[in-house]
Amino acid sequence: MTPARYPSALFGLATMLMAGLLASALPMRSAAQELSTYDGPCDASAAVALDAEHFVVGNDERNTLYTYRRGRVQAVARLDLSTFLGTHVDEESDIEAAAAVGTRIYWITSHGRDSHGRARPSRHRFFATELLPGHPPSLTPVGEPYLELLRDMQASTALKPYKLAHAARLAAEADGGFNIEGLAATIDGRLLIGLRNPLPRGRALVVPLQNPGELIEGKRARFGTPIELDLGRRGIRSIELVGSSYLIVAGPPADSGSFAP
Predict the structure, then answer these.
(1) What does pTM read for this prediction?
(2) According to the 3-state scheme, what is the secondary structure of 70-100?
(3) What is the CATH number of domain 7-251?
(4) What tens digit of pLDDT does each residue of 87-128 get?
(5) CA spacing 20 to 30 A to 3: which of 10, 43, 166, 257?
(6) pLDDT in tens, 167-193
């Protein structure tokens, strides 16, 4: 199986592996030797460990979150977010990434157009869930989904050089298009938004989000100084905080090209 041909399967595997790694705190090598199969979403795109045994998975084709117990094939819980997100059950929000800050998990969608360059307002969502203890642990939506993140990025003085307004008018995977696929927490509770596209000067773009908690209260986003990373003309397909370091899966802005950790 080559990453260029099967990106969804690759990232479904990588997503669940990362969740299992973070939940169990096993070394990377040990985790890789204990791969398990889980039934449910075929396009897993985001995952967060809930405790030592459970993790939650988001799917970019559905508006449902799936909670799994490590080693158990079937999901132990599901949370349909269609009503909360304000979308139809069959209208995808294109969930792409998640990051935990304490007991709160922030989720972000692609904010991009479809493959034909058509606007997809349902893909403009930034939202949060709160972790509730239990066996299994459960999640509940908190606050309100924020729909104006892309507008805020386009208006940001710090991001003006990247001409994101133009990028957002293109198909997500077009040359210079706009597509979010990464989200990671910082040690001090902020977030890093990783872009798959565009690649300014061939570099991946990371945008610090300073006030994630305020967004779900309806306040405008504030951004820090953007970060450009030389990933060999690859964008960010996943970014995770592991200890005090970041693990990045880099890949092409379109469907063809090479991947690298």
Answers:
(1) 0.88
(2) CCCCCCCEEEECHHHHCCCCCCCCCEEEEEE
(3) 2.110.10
(4) 876 688 999 999 999 999 999 999 999 999 999 999 999 999
(5) 166
(6) 999 999 999 999 999 999 999 999 999
